[in-house]
Amino acid sequence: MNMNSEKSELKVITGNGAAAISAVLCRPDVVAAYPITPQTEIIEKLSHYHATGRLDAEMVTVDGENSAMNTVTAASAAGARVFTATSSWGLVFMYDAVLAASGARAPVVMVNVNRETPGIIAVSAGQQDMISIRDCGWIFLIAEDSQEILDLVIMAYRLAEDYDIQVPVMVHYDGFYLSYMAERVEVPSQKSVDDFLAVLKTQPERTKLVPGQKLGCGAHGILEGYVELRHKHCAAMERAKDKFEEISLDFEKQFNRSYGGQIEEYRLDDAEIVLVASGSMCGTIKTVIDEQREKGLKIGLLRIRMFRPFPSEKIIKALKGKKCAGVVDRSICFGFKPGPMCVELKSFSRELGDLKILSFIDGIANTDITKINVEKMISMTIAGAKGENVPEVTWISYDKDLKEC
Fold this sequence. Notes:
The chain is an alpha/beta fold. The protein folds into 2 domains: 9-255, Rossmann fold (3-Layer(aba) Sandwich), CATH 3.40.50.970; 263-404, Rossmann fold, CATH 3.40.50. It has helices at residues 15-25, 40-51, 65-77, 89-93, 95-103, 128-132, 146-160, 190-197, 223-255, 281-294, 312-319, 340-346, 371-385, and strands at 9-14, 30-33, 58-61, 82-86, 109-114, 139-142, 169-174, 182-187, 263-266, 273-277, 299-304, 306-308, 324-329, 356-361, 393-395.
């Protein structure tokens, strides 16, 4: 990678490689991370870039993920731009520090390479780690492919460090699929990334620790003060929706790649039935939708890119007038039969009118979300649109009755 070039470069790299290159392009001051499968390659790449002089940052070697998060949170509070990455058990291990980072409104940017979490020991794909921490007060963005991983990390800094937001951002992507899959990626020039992030320098300086000056950071909150901080945090999360739309438009102008903001609407305009999904499975779903369109079926995909804050307004508008939506979850929601994203969708079902909502659970524990599986989901969604008796929840790769659980 030629860091001095003013032109973009085409490279074939893994999702982890894209995340590492993107972090370097954003010029972090402090990087602290601990390796864990399938994230380890990111740390290896960053260590290599640091050793060869491409990454001009303080590279902190820590004894675990909890220390990594505490390190970048403290550095962020002091005004530094920071980066870290983790996965699964590592995310669980840093949980208390993740909460502290959001409570401090530290604009940390972290990559989480999705993998199943503790409970049943498994080194396998799934979005359960993301779901287990969804209410931690961070903004969540979910990538579909390696190009989007690189681009979302860049946008994450614009979002997290924006003076009106100042909330940490986590970029998620599917482990064992995107993490190790090599794809064509356009790597932007250092100058173009610098120009894109330069707007942050024109904003008022955020509060930070300064030697000799008084500032409380991580102090105990009580009564009205605690409520005020929580209310302001939630308000910033809501503002992040429109802010991300603005950032997406600016990104398109700068890099000539359009993403559409909080959600992607794929062939939705005249669709009667819809699949709702996120992450790498969406590539397979789009392929099947294209095939079904050739047969005359009016079907589309609503891809969730911003998961926290949940883009309810965008989803309601996109699904208006549709007959049936099948929500595909690569995780489960303990205590509810439907998957987590389906549960969230059902929370504002009144605003969705007569739309019938089905839950499909697939792709956990390394089970592939195949074209055959997607075709089965589409068939059931068609049946639901016709008013036929279709199960509310279907585990696509496990067809036994849920009563056996």
